[in-house]
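Submission sheet (multi-component)
Chains listed below:
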Amino acid sequence: MPDVQALVNDFVLKIKRRKIEGSQATAKHTAELLRQVVSQQRITYTNQAASLIDAVKAVGEQLIEANPVELAIGNIVRRVLHMIREENVSSAMSAVEELALGSDDDEAEHDNRMGLSAAAVAAAARSTLRAPSLQTLLEDIPDSATAPHPPSSGGDSEGKNKSAAESSSRNKKLKHDVIEAINELIQEIDTCHELISAQAVEHIHQNEVILTLGHSRTVKEFLFAANEKKRSFRVFVAEGAPRYQGHVLAKELVGKGLQTTVITDSAVFAMISRVNMVIVGAHAIMANGGVIAPVGINMVALAAQRHAVPFVVLADCMDYGQLGDSPPIRVENPAFDYVAPKLVSLFITDMGGHSPSYVYRLIADYYSAEDLVVRRKSAP
Amino acid sequence: MEPRRPPRTVSDPKVRQVGFVTPAAAPPARTVSDTAAMPAAGASQELPLSGSSLSPVMIPPPRHDGLSARVTAPVPVPIAATALRLDNLQIRVGSYNQSEVLLGTPPMTSPSSRVEDAVSEFSDDVSASSLYGRTEPDKVGTAFPGRSGDLMPAKSVVAGGSIGGSHTPENPPTTSLVVKTLPGITEKKRGMLEKQHDEAAAPKPLKEKTTKAERRALQEAQRAAKSAAKEGGGADPTNTKKDKVVKPTPQKKDVPEVAASSGKKVDRPLEKERKKEVLPLRMQFDDKHKVEKVKQRAIVNQREAKSRVEFFQRLPQYVHGTQLQELEAKFFQLDAVHPSVYKVGLHHLSGKITGGNARCIAMLLAFKEAIKDYSTPPEKALVRDLNAKISGFVSFLIECRPLSISMGNAIKFLKNRIAKLPLSMSELDAKASIQSDIDRFINQKIIIADKVIVRHAFAKIRDGDVLLTYGLSSVVEMILVYAHEHKKKFRIVIVDSRPKHEGQILLRRLVAKGLNCTYTHINAISYIMHEVTRVFLGAASVLSNGTVYSRVGTACVAMVAKAYRVPVLICCEAYKFHERVQLDSICFNELGDPDAILKVPTHVESYLYGCMDNDNLQLLNLNYDATPSDYVSMIITDYGMVSCNQLLIYCSVF
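Outcome: structure written.
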């Protein structure tokens, strides 16, 4: 445990000093840290899941406290908690199934998926907040797509079948599963950009004029992807004042041969009338469809609305955040803006394009209702 | 382009009469005349409004016209003079026939001579003959009118003679040289020559006269003496009469000639101008041919920036910082530009003077200085030459930095004043008059206007308000300081933007005065707007469709304020109003130094370092943007607080 604590402290320090920045890097680091935490967690024989959850929560609180504004941390913590719960339930369910149906060992490989989805349905049903969601409907697809997980969980359930009474081995399996799931999550964080940018061609057409503000890796890759498809378009980059990351983006875009114009933030309104589409990256997305994004975006969104320019938000998988109507975050030196859902035309996520009113569904897929309080707990 | 301007300004009123908007300089002038009882400036500008009917209100007060009137005709009411002058102008607008009518009408006073002169120029033959007809009564008895009439033809005759050389033998040998230049002498000859050169004289004299006209004022005394001497030599009774009249007459003569010359000059362009006036086209910098032309004339050799944003090809974009040294080096070579104007140009260029009001005042003061040092070159008319000179200054200033709308309006005003100078005025008087006009403009249109605006705005500040302002606006600063001095309890949020960071200057000044300030960047505007109760913004101009043309970012601030339902109050002096309309910020704008964007605070080296030569990278530094009128709750001007809709009415009235 001490080494975990050391790791956590190190990470907290890094976050505080802004050594780690950007939702993606933060998310990845958080996930890796949580994987460590889970793997270091001593196996208890009574209630493995509960102890895991407690451990993760404890670490999560510290991380969130380190930078409450970086929602990616909280989101990843919640994701991990959610995964632990689901794994727990699924293993329990499969155990129950075993008891009920007898042993179907022979077709374990095949059936395992069914079992899983059944578990997911059960998990969904368990929480009153969650109606059967998109995730449960789509469950089969990601599971089949991500190869490593099902076999392992299959093996797990097999193991359970054979020794249903032995909770210790089951717990071991649970831990193993959770780690696998976290690995998947990390992978997802890595590939999420690709999934989003793959859709670029559908949204950017020839001779488009695109405006963006600040620097976002998602946006950059989105534009690159469109550029690779030989679409010629022009990009206006507002510099994104306090940090001027727009310059960085501009440099990268120019390096790829994109026609780029750097403008000051104040000129956004002046230029927006000649822009076909505003594409920005998000820091976090609210359940109500609102967006938390680098400061200045709200201004851009208002201007875009005035001139009926589509305002498109590229959303990473780890960006889905808070439930409910969140007021804008109030920080001393504002680093973020809150954009009301009515100003957003479209969210492009790794699962496709969504309208703001649909976001709450996506969020319901990713988090358990119980975990929403993680942050509130940490607040006092 | 420039040289043509002076005539246009002269003709302005006539043309404007038709349009729905009047010259931008006019509105303020009139208001001033209405409110502040300073009709002097207003009078001339009223002209366009009241085509035919002259209300007494519009008549310039003696003090102003007195400069000219004093000399010419002390007794005969200045009002008459001005009225006549007005008529005169109107005549020019309309048909020439009226001139005859005027002639017919009994011109009782010296000023009338002006009218006649002007008239005579329009139709030389007619006037000449008619005047001759009337010369008889003159000789018989008294009259100025007759005299002035006499002089006209006589002079013209003489001039013609002298030019042609055919009549010179007839002139008294002593003054053959003088004849060319001095009208006083011509009068003498008049008696002798009258009959002879009805035909010969009429066509030519104009040119000659115009050149002479300028000198006369200075040479009056000389002339008088000479003419007296000649008369003593042996002259008719008519000549003796002249003696008395000599003083006034030369001026009278001047007037006609100059008026004539200017009148004539005006007339021709007038037709062209009329077309032009409808669409005063700006220089379009994507027209290569024109750009080349302009470049050849240019004093400042600005290197054009390499990569330009497609949308703004029309606008000049220069590499900043290159021309300053060159210009400084050229200082002693530029004779055409007065040093004070030169200095202002450099200040504009280097950004030492910024802001509509400051630039305008600096320019006007420089012009004033230049006018003070100005002397009419021989053979030229003050009105024309000075106007041309000013045009030269203006084009120099434009090369340094595109004119702000405030400056454009001030220049329009100034040229208008110069063009309307009574032609009888001596150079000294004319210069004094122009200088006092400039002072009055600065005082009334800018300084007093600002004070009035401050009072109005003060009424809108309550205790506990949180006021937001953007950038550095001189009026807003005055408002805040004034409110603070009057013990209002309020807090200020200063929003700033790159690359100019004008707000920091304001912040420094206000904090020094002990005001409670919050400083933030424009990107944080949505964040800070929650706590704000009023937004005060300055403006470079208010266009006639209600669009507020101001420093870039103003539109953003107003938009966010509107989104948060915070009232937006624009403070703008009325002299900055402009009749142009504009819907977006792209059609017309001014491009700042693109490299200013490069430098990023807290980073020694720009992020963009290394890809500056890449053709794909463009930097765009706009100076202005256009705020749609629906974002603006109220415009505070020197005539009070108006909504944008009302403003349209104001604009169309002026």
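Remark: Chain B touches chain A at residues 309, 311, 497-499, 520-528, 530, 552-553, 555-556, 559-560, 563, 584-586, 589, 597, 600, 603, 606-608, 610-611, 614, 616-622, 625-626, 628 (CB under 8 Å).
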